[in-house]
Amino acid sequence: MLRRSFSLGCCLLLGLVALPCPAMAEGWKAGAAKQKITPPEPMWMAGYGSRNHASTGFLNDLWAKALVLEDAKGARVAIVTLDLVGIGRDLADPICDQLQKKFDLNRSNVALCCSHTHSGPVVGRNLRTLHYDLVDARQQKLIDRYAEHLREMIVDVVGRAIDALAPSQISWGQGTATFAVNRRNNKEPDVPRLRAEGQLAGPVDHDVPVLKVTDLGRKTTALLIGYACHATVLDGYDWSSDYPGFAQSELEQQNPGCTALFFAGCGADQNPLPRRRVELARQYGHDLAAAVGAALKSQMKPLAGNLAAGFTEIPLDLAKVPTKEEIEQDTKSADRYVAARARLYHDRLSAGQTVPATYSYPVQVWRLGSELVLVTLGGEVVVDYALRIKQDMGPANTWVAGYANDVMAYIPSRRVLTEGGYEGGGAMVYYSLPSPWAPTIEKTILDAVRTTTPPVR
Ligand SMILES: [Zn+2]
What we know:
Oligomer: single chain
Bound molecules: zinc ion
Shape: globular
Radius of gyration: 22 Å
């Protein structure tokens, strides 16, 4: 009804000139909301094992933001972006249960995504061996309390985004930002020179996907943006949403009343280099906002058609289940993380449980009209996946993100797994998984992306 009356109004206003009113023709609604989630008190920070005390200060806020989209048939999806290192199943499952119960949102239709800032709090049992198992009882209590509060705040912010649903135009486009550098170059002393000379090693994904939501008065109400790069410019003791936070703030200042939402792409093997200075976090945030600005000035594609959501959990094989003897041996390791992980499995074996041989891995694919496929993968996904999926599905209409729904480990490609190192297997200990992934990982995930992709409705 609204659609028809607005189309009529549009034509009356324009006299007999037949200008297109694409959004009205599609009947989209959108609603956005945001909630500050900066911890109110000092607590343990996530992402680095080298920190030896709780936070001491503040640089810029952390936010949970929600964007809810509804198509002309009333189908809804909700994307939540979090300025946090990651979210695990321990929190994602109860949040999705609540969203189902309160708002009738199916698991397929909810994406919980993260910026992967390394200057936010420990999030429940995420990176368990790196943090939760090694901090004292007081910090564990603070972590548990924050997780409980976070769960409530996320459910609330989605509810407020639903309440804000209003007829909208939605379009999408892409910009480019070049500060993400493959981690192979981490030890290079002069990255800016190598960048200028085109001499940096390893694959990168410099796309900056942008989904723009405007109201019927053409005012921008939400900007959903992504980028494939670790939010690790900063490693100190001040709360900070790092470069994604500065980008979101700049976009919200440029567009009063707009909610800017950032979530990380497949940047597990990508760092912002050089780094470690606040002015660099601000600079990269500005670079990202400028890339969004360029995308907004380009020919954005209006979304036409309907929403369709696919979600599946696949058993992802681990390379080797350690034996009871190997676990017992590891409990005596001089490496405190190896010992902490071994204690976890030792306790589980003692309680009559088994060591898992697979992990239930979430793969989610949404069609946002006929113009855009959004692939959101669990874990810290290396860039090879985004490049491959975009190549397979079409780079002009595919958006691939990681750090979604359950950040349980690094997700190496076959290439990175074979190369070994931190992303290939070393990091598994910090996520408390019992072994590296099996060599089938890349094929299994890519097959699941194909089978999870819903047909055009
Ligand atoms: Zn990471």
